[in-house]
Amino acid sequence: MSQELEREYSELHAYLDFYSTHVSGIDPNDPIHPTNVGIRIVAEYGRSKALDSLKQAVNDTVEELIDRPPEYVQKLDAALREEGLLTFSEIWRRYASSYKRTVKRGIIRTETEYYLVTGVLADYSSLVTEDECALLESLVARYEQRA
Question: pTM here?
């Protein structure tokens, strides 16, 4: 794998390890813990396939948390940031189809989407480009005008 894909693998692996242990409460020694499953996938199919599985798994975490209140996401982001890991907001921005739909649609429809977009904007560790930031800010402003 390229250096960029190796970095992505490491970032997602660390995020999922933290999430599985601290959010889902899975014992790191349990064979079903994603870290242990990932080791088996790498051994059997290689790191490229393991990266595909990681992307699916982190998207599953988005689906699990999508309806959590903004305060929960803020606390989770802070805990992840404290560990030097990707935040949930950054995971949502990078991998969630719901984020991509919101941006493509050009309108925030729900309060959940609003809080997630504002979370991305507030996440100083996020890798949002200036253009994407401007777009998100305009989506938030339009939503706030309607509310």
Answer: 0.77
